[in-house]
Each structure stands twice: as structure tokens, then as C-alpha cells.
Write a structure and sequence with these properties.
With about 220 residues, the protein is α/β, with parallel strands linked by helices. It has a single domain (about 5-210), classed as 3-Layer(aba) Sandwich (Rossmann fold), CATH 3.40.50. It has seven helices and nine strands, in the order αααββαβαβαββαβββ. The protein has a seven-stranded mixed beta sheet with strand order 5-4-3-6-7-8-9. The chain is globular. It starts with a helix and ends in a 12-residue tail after the last strand.
Length: about 220
């Protein structure tokens, strides 16, 4: 039986090492203490598919069914760190998946409004979050391209699937000064993780961060 505490500690060492190795891309040799504490605190084994608990802390993406994946832990840490959360922010997440990324954000004190395009997976995420005792996350089945207008504007947006270009509706739902972390590129690649900052005048500061590979962002079959 896997000792999850030890596995989690090894994973944190791996994330720290990979952060140092990718500094030339990301501009950050290490992630904040708050980010690393959140990665240490959230029980990833609660968010993988049944039977995969023994490999929950391997630094790689894993299938969670429905054609979706739970992101590589290093990428979760990087995307979280890029948001620069201090606590109390309203964050829009596009692509709930199994709920793991939302749980990490919630641990940092964010109020997360998460949209999942696959209805059954949205229900799985709700159950995972409840079992893990995570509060501060609202999950809704819907079309990620539409955002969540009723809860806008947001202090930050995090997108865990890759559209080919920046969705304008999501930009509109950002507050001035808000950050969006999003992979962009075609299904077949190449894709690049971007940090997009909305300036006070509404213009965008778009920075390329790291080459990545995400599942494509698609319209919900029942999207509006």
C-alpha cells in the first residue's frame, strides 16, 4: 500500500526541481511557498480515477475518463503560481475535470466558479470535492466558451483545456488587473501556455510561458 504522505513529499521535490529546470521559459526558478503548501495539502489521491490512487503522486497527467485528464502536478503548480493568489479572489475555472485544480485554488483562499463541459464529469468533480472536504468551489455544467456571466467579473481565469485562440467572452468577464492562465494552440500542437493580464484600459499584456500539451477546449453539446 502506498504511503501517500511520503509520495506527496517526493512529488514536491520533483516539482521544485522541474521549476528550476524550466526557469529559462517561465522566468521563475521556484514557486511561492503558498503554492507549494497548497500542493502539499490537497489529497490528489481523492481526485484520480478509482484504481489509480497508487500513482496519484507521479508527476504526469492521468486519464479521468470521458476523454479528459487530470493535469500533471507540475503544470497545476505552475498555473496556480502564475495567478498570484493572495486569498479572497473570485476565480473562473474552465474545465473542472476531477476537481483537483479547483481544490488547490480553494486551499489558497480563492472562491472558485468552475465550468465543466461534460455533465457526468461535473458530477464526479462535485463528489470528489465534497469527499475531500473542499469548500469555496461551485461547479456548473456548461460551455466554457461562454464563461459564467452571472458571477462575473472575475479576479482571475484559469483554463485547463486548449482553445486555438483567446476566447473573447472570457476576456470580457475579467476585471481590470485580472490574470488569465490559458494554453493556446491547435489540437495537434504546438501549444503554448500564456499569462494574459488585463490592463486598466482593457488592453491585454499577453506573455508566452511554456510549451504544453492539453486536451482541446470544445463546445458543450448542450452549450448555449
Amino acid at each position: 500500500m502506498v504511503d501517500h504522505a511520503k509520495a506527496r513529499a517526493r512529488l514536491l521535490e520533483t516539482i521544485a526541481r522541474e521549476a528550476a529546470e524550466t526557469e529559462q521559459w517561465t522566468g521563475r526558478a521556484r514557486f511561492s511557498e503558498r503554492t507549494m503548501q497548497a500542493m502539499a495539502a490537497v489529497p490528489r489521491e481523492r481526485f484520480v480515477s478509482s484504481g489509480d490512487e497508487e500513482v496519484a503522486y507521479v508527476n504526469r497527467p492521468q486519464s479521468i475518463g470521458f476523454g479528459q485528464t487530470i493535469s500533471q502536478p507540475y503544470i497545476v503548480a505552475l498555473m496556480t503560481d502564475l495567478l498570484g493568489l493572495r486569498g479572497g479572489e473570485r476565480i473562473l475555472e474552465i474545465g473542472t475535470g476531477s476537481g483537483y485544480q479547483a481544490a488547490v485554488l480553494a486551499h489558497l483562499g480563492a472562491n472558485v466558479f468552475s465550468i465543466e463541459t461534460v455533465a457526468d464529469l461535473a458530477e464526479v468533480a462535485k463528489k470528489n470535492l465534497a469527499r475531500a472536504g473542499v469548500t469555496g468551489v461551485q461547479v456548473q455544467h456548461g460551455d466554457g466558451f461562454d464563461g459564467w456571466a452571472e458571477q462575473a467579473p472575475f479576479d482571475g481565469v484559469i483554463v485547463t483545456a486548449a482553445p486555438e485562440r483567446l476566447p473573447g467572452t472570457l476576456v470580457e468577464q475579467m476585471k481590470p488587473g485580472a490574470r488569465m492562465v490559458i494554453p493556446l494552440g491547435p489540437r495537434s500542437g504546438p501549444q503554448m501556455l500564456h499569462l494574459v493580464i488585463k490592463r486598466e484600459d482593457g488592453s491585454l499584456d499577453d506573455r508566452s510561458v511554456l510549451p504544453v500539451a492539453f486536451v482541446p477546449m470544445v463546445r458543450s453539446p448542450q452549450g448555449t
